[in-house]
Specification:
This is DNA-binding transcriptional ArsR family regulator. The chain has a 3-stranded antiparallel sheet with strand order 1-3-2. The protein is an alpha+beta fold. The protein has one domain: Winged helix-like DNA-binding domain superfamily/Winged helix DNA-binding domain (Arc Repressor Mutant, subunit A, Orthogonal Bundle), CATH 1.10.10. The longest helix has 13 residues.
């Protein structure tokens, strides 16, 4: 994952409605939810849901699969894992440097 991709994904999740949609899909598990079921759970108009889903699909956080006449939406877990990893993979990487630069409280 690169900085630009992480920024696009985080920006798409920065909208409260999209974040709610995404969390609902994450909770649904690998089976996902049909668009109609997702619309029921979120309680928004179909056109609004479609707009927000498009953005989540464009950033790779959500996938869609047509099963006959039903469109199934799923959280794309590898993308979620990559984003979380990107945010956390260098956690405290500079802590050793910071600890050396700070004077000791005991001194």
């Amino acid at each position: 994952m690169n900085l630009e991709q992480a920024a696009r994904q985080l920006e798409s999740l920065g909208n409260p409605t999209r974040l709610q949609i995404y969390r609902t899909l994450v909770r649904a598990g690998h089976a996902g939810l049909p668009v109609g079921g997702l619309q029921e759970r979120i309680g928004i108009a179909a056109s609004t849901l479609s707009h927000h889903l498009k953005r989540l699909v464009e950033t790779g956080l959500v996938t869609q699969e047509r099963q006959a006449t039903t469109l199934i939406c799923r959280a794309h877990y590898p993308a979620m894992d990559a984003l979380i990893g990107y945010l956390a993979d260098e956690c405290c990487a500079d802590a050793a440097c910071a600890a050396l630069a700070e004077p000791s409280a005991a001194s």
